[in-house]
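Work package 3, deliverable 3.1, input record:
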Amino acid sequence: MPVISELLTHRGGMPSSLELQQQLLTGSTLLSESEENLIEVVDVLHSYGEVLDAYSRNLIYQAEAQFLNPFPIFRFLDGDLSFGKIWRHLCHDRINFEYAEYCMKTMLWHGTGGLDAYLDSEAFMRDCSAIITRKTKGDPLLAILHPLFPNFLPEAIRAAATTNALGQFWRVMSDLFIDLAQAEAQGSITTIRTLVDFLRQGLVAAAGQPISYGVTVGGDRFWVLPPEAGLTFLADVAVPYVEAVFLRGTPFLGTVSFNAQAQQISPDQGKFSYGALYADPLPTMGAGIPPSLLMQDMYRHLPQRLHGLYLKRTRGEGDERVKICMSFQKAMFCVTNAAIEGTFPFDLASVDPSQQAANQAHAAAWADRLATARTDCLAVVA
Amino acid sequence: MLSTLLLIPFLGSFLLLLWPDKPPPGRMRTIVLLVLIAQLLWNLVVLKAFNPALPDLQLVETLPWLPGLGMEYRLGIDGLSLPLLLINSSLSLVTAVCTRDINERPRLYFALLLIISGAVNGAFMAGNLLLFFLFYELELIPLWLLISIWGGVDRAAAATKFLLFTAVSGMLILGAFLGLALLTGVADFSISPIDSDHLAMGSQLLLLGALLIGFGIKIPLFPFHSWLPDAHTQASSPVSVLLAGVLLKLGTYGLLRFCLGLFPQAWALVAPWLAIWAGVSVLYGSLAAIAQRDMKRMVAYSSVGHMGYILLAAAAATPVSIAGAVFQMVSHGLISALLFLLVGIVYRKTGTRDLEVLRGLLNPERGLPLTGSLMTLGVMASAGMPGMAGFISEFLVFRGSIERFPLATLLCMVGSGLTAVYFLLLVNRAFFGRLAITPPSLAEVDGRLDIRLAAVAPRETIPALALAITVIALGLLPAGLGRLSETTSIAMARLPELGALLSSGGVG
C-alpha cells in the first residue's frame, strides 16, 4: 500500500499578526508551554552558549591580534600555531568560525543602530586616520595600498570594530545561556515563562554595559570605539544584531535559490526576511548555507539529554541537524520574546491609555514582522 | 551442463511449492535466494567453460523428444545468449533480494519468479524453434500473475493488456515457425539460415514480417508498445526490474537469433525500412517520455526508445553494430533495472511517483540523498555518458550503423540527446529544490512543510548500489563482454552476405 503524503507532511500553525500582538501584550510567551519545548530550548541554548564562547574568544582575538593583517590565514587558530592545532584544523576537527564571520558581515552590511552610526561619524574617521598613519609607517604593503584605495583600510577597520563588538555581545550571551542551563539544572527554571523571564532579566542587566574597542599599533594604543562614543550593549550592538541576524539575514544560495532580477529579493534591505527566525530548517547541510555551520557546531556540543530526545524523533541521528535548527528557532523566539518584553516602553500593567497605546504600537511593530517568520515551530512538539 | 541452468530454477520452484506446512515468507525468500545464487554460480561455471573464439553454438546438449513433430530438446549457447543468461541470473537475484514484505501468497510469488527465470534461461539456450517457443510462452502466465496479483490499483487492466499483446506476439511467432516448416517442407525446426532456393522471397518476407511484429510487441517497438508503460506502472518494482531488465530482451534476442538468423536475405532487403522504424521508435519513445509525469512511465518509455537502438544495430548488421546490440541488451538490462529499483524506493518512501509533486529528494538529511545520487548516476548512464555502460553500447551501435544507415542513425542519436532531456527533467523536478511531496502551492506554505520521510536503510540500497557499480565497471572495462560476443557478432554480421552468396550459387 502506498503511503499517504499527508502522513509524512506536517505543517505547524501560523498565528496571525494580531494573535502574536495579543500574546505579547498579555505577557504570554510566544513558544507554547511544554516539557519537551523546555528541554529543547534550554539544551540547545546550552550548546549554543558553548559555541558562542568559542566564537566570542575568536572574534575578539581577530579584532585585536589580526588587526589590519592583509593575509590573516591563521585567524581561526587563536594564536596557537602548534602542529597539532593546525592538523586538527585541516581535518576539520574544529569550530566553524566562518559562521561568526558571516554574522559579522551581515551586521556590517545591514548597518543599523548606534554602532553603524558611529562607524560613519567624523570622530571615527579621525581615529581611523591616526591608526592608518601609524600602521602604514611600518607596513610597506599597506603604505602602497592605502593611497591607491583610500576607502579600503577604513572599511577594514569598520569590519574589525564590528568583529570586536559582536565578540563582546556574544561574550555576554554565552555566559547568559550557560547560566540559564545551570539554573534549569538547579530547578529554578521549570517553564517557558520562567525561561523567558530569566533571559529578559539577563538582557536588561547587560543593557547599559559599555562597548569599547582599542588596538595597539606599533606599540601605540589607539581607540577604534572609544568609551566617549557612549556605545552600549543593548541599543548599539544587541538590537542591530537581532535586526541583521535574526530578522533580515541574507539570501544565501542553498537548495532554494533566489533570483534578484525577478524581484524575488526586495531591493529594500529593510524588507529582507532571510534571518534565523525565517530560515527553513530543511535545507540545512545543503549547498553551503552558512547557518548550517552553526548547526554543525551545536551538534558537537549537544547535551546528552537533548541528543536522547532527538534519537526518538523522525530519523534519529540521521537528521539531527535539522532538529537542532528547529529547536534553535524555538530558542531564538524565546530570546526575541525576552528582548521585546525588555524593550516595552512602559509597564504592561499600566492603565494609562497613552502608555497602553505606546506598548501596543511596540508589540504591533514586532508582531507584523514575526507574522511571516517560522512561527509554525511555536506550537509544535515535533 | 546447460540443463543444470533449467534444473536449478525449476526444481527450486517445485521445492517451494511442495514445501510442507506453511513456511514464513522470510524463509521462502531465503530458499529462493539460495536457488538463485546457485543459478548465478552455475552460470559462472558455464562462462568458464565457454570458448569465446568459436562462433557456433557451444556446450550443446541434445535429446530426441518428439521427433515426429520436429521437437528436439537441444540446448546450446553462443556469444549472443551467454551475456543474456548472465543478465538473467543476476537480475533474477536482484529481483528476489528487492522483494520484501510479500505477505500475500509468498509461496506462489517466489515460485513464479523461479519459473520465469528458468523459462528465460531455456529461451536463451534453446537450439530448436519449438523449444524456444515453449520457453517463450512459459514465462507469459507467471508474469501475468505477478502483475495481476501483486500489482497496483489498476493491475487487472494492465495485466490483461499485457496478456493480450504478448499472446498475439506468441501466436505470430508460432505461426511463423510453423509456416516455415510448412513452406520449406522441413519440419526439424532447427535454427539455420533459409535461402531463396528453399523459400521464395515473398514467403520469406511474410514469415519475417510475422516474426518482426511478434518480437516487436515483446521488445516493444512503436507502435506495439502500449502494453509496456501500463504493465510497468502497475507491476511492483521487483517485477518491473525483471520485465525491463530481462523479459524485453527475449524480443531483441528473437530479433537477432530468428529474424536475422533465419531470414538473412529478406532481412537485408527490409533493413533500410527497419532502420527507419528504429529511428521512429527511438524518437517516439523519447518524446513520449518527455511528456510523462509518472517517473515509472517515463522510465518505461525510455525503454521503448532504447530498444530501438537494438533494431537499428540489427538492421545494419555489421560486426560492430551487432556487438553494440549485445552490449545494449546488457547495459539496458542493468540501467533500466537500476532506474526501476530507485523509482521503487522513491514510491515506497513517498507514496507517489508524480513529478509534479515530488521535489527536493536530494535533501541530505530528510530526503533520499543516496537514492537521488544513484538516480543521477543511472540517468547519466542511460543518456550515454562516457565511463558508463550506456556509452559503450550506444557508441558501438552508432559507430556500426552510421555508414550503412546515416539518416536513421542520426535520428537515433537525436533520441539519445532526448534521453538527457527527459531524464534531466526527472532529476531536476524530483530531486532538486526544496523538499516536498505534495502538489506545489504558495511558496510560503511550501517552505513551512516539515517532511518526515523514513530513511532508506542501507540494505534497501545495496542491490541498486551493486547495479550502479556494474554499470560503471562495464563502462570502464568493456573488453570482457566485447570479447565474449565478438566472434558471434562477426558471424551474425556475415549472415546477410552469406545468404546473398548462397542464392547466387557463389558458395558450394
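Chain B touches chain A through 30 residues (CB under 8 Å).
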